[in-house]
Amino acid sequence: MPPWQKTANFVDSAQTFDYWTRCEDSVIEKEFQRGKMILMVNKQPAVHSDSFIYNPTTSKYQMQSAPRLRLFDCQEIRQVLSPYGLEIGTLNSALLDYYHDDVVDIDLRALFGTNIMLNEPPKESGISGQTQLEQLARELGVRFMPTRQAMLTMDDAAQRELLAKCIIITRWYRLFLHCPQCAQLLRMRASKASATCTHCQQDFYPNISPVAITLLRDESNEHTLLVRHKRSAGQVYTCIAGFCSPGERLDQTVRREVAEEVGIECWDVRPLDGSQTWPLPAGSLMVPFVATADMGDEIQASISELEYAKWFSRQEVTEALRRSEEDPLLIKLYRHLSESGKDPETRIQLRYIPPQGAIAHHIIKNWILREF
After folding, report:
1. In DSSP terms, which residues pair with 284 in a beta bridge?
2. pLDDT of 297-343, one tens digit each?
3. 176-179 contacts: CB < 8 A, separation 24 or more?
4. Cα separations (Å) of 238 from 118, 146, 148, 162?
5. Mean pLDDT computed over every residue of the chain
6. Which pTM value belongs to this model?
7. Cys-Cys link to 110, which of 31, 138, 259, 267 (CB 3.0-4.6 A)?
8. Whole-number Å distance between alpha carbons of 267 and 8
9. Residues 329-334: contacts with CB within 8 Å, 24+ apart?
10. Which are the contacts of 265, defined by CB distance < 8 A and separation ≥ 6?
11. Residues 82 and 59: beta-carbon distance below 8 Å
12. How far apart are CA 5 and CA 37, in angstroms?
């Protein structure tokens, strides 16, 4: 049974997983022998290949359905990776979750994640790193896809959460090597749930940064202010978001970020249901809010972050949602943008909201449905 379909006793399972995070490394070694894992190579997750179809016109593979993470037996995948000079084990893997195995007598098993890098072939070999990656993908029966694209297009929230956890924890244990207090080496637990300083015995844990993401509406609740980031695809608009500063409440973050990004004041800040872990660039917890502002106030978009900010009617946003749901993989959008060239007026039109993998998609959709 996949880890995103848990049905057994939750309390017992949660307590077992908590024990795994604190137990001796030898216990994790044994669990690794009989567990499963999700694989990332060159920072790209392995997904089932049937989500892609070959396009002979472009000589490239393109998505035809929402991607799904591929699960591997920890022991079996070692044999495939070995010829590529790749080793996996508890040293370079992290404990992510548990799953229930109904086939064998062991009910609870561990689920791991690893993020490894292929060695670049020598120049004289005539083989590129990308060619090597594609060859490995064929042997595994998968496709490796960019992390952001995977997070945005997966339609299974549990799989997105699992991938996000893998990215955040594997990045943490690779970078967090020395004690911030005394600079001595840290001893990482095999689970990667924590690390202990070998000198001062201080414990450290993977961290995550809170982010407030806000749908800004007018007093009539018939218009919303959406923004276009410089780094995002043209014609895709989203909500205002920003990191919470030390000593700041999340509702204060909302008011500050709105003021900083679009130059207006908001009020009636209210939390919304749900949240989302987002692994890029360094691990955030997206917490949704709704706030009210005056449409008559002059918008002063932050030139360092935004390309455009504008009020849109409920009808305009409804049309953008319709396009987004009809084209969840953004295939038609990229085709439209390539045909229209680099016309700046075309780029600032509202045609799409973020794909279903982003919490902004669900915030905007719930506003359209008048859920708040």
Report:
1. 209, 278
2. 999 999 888 999 999 999 999 999 999 999 887 788 777 777 766 66
3. 176/204, 179/204
4. 35, 21, 16, 24
5. 91
6. 0.91
7. 31
8. 44
9. 329/63, 329/64, 329/66, 329/153, 329/355, 330/153, 330/233, 330/236, 330/355, 331/62, 331/63, 333/233, 333/235, 333/236, 334/233
10. 255, 258, 259, 293, 294, 297
11. no
12. 16
Token pair 């201080």 is at which residue? 202
Task: Say which amino acid occupies 303.
Answer: I
Q: How many residues are recorded in the chain?
A: 372
Place of tokens 């009210």: 292
Instruction: List Cα–Cα distances, 249 to 123, 275, 286, 287, 301, in angstroms.
Output: 53, 16, 14, 12, 24
Residue 38 structure tokens = 């999700």
- Cα end-to-end span (Å), the chain: 36
CB under 8 Å to 46, separation ≥6 — which residues? 38, 39, 40, 69, 70, 72, 137, 140, 142, 143, 144
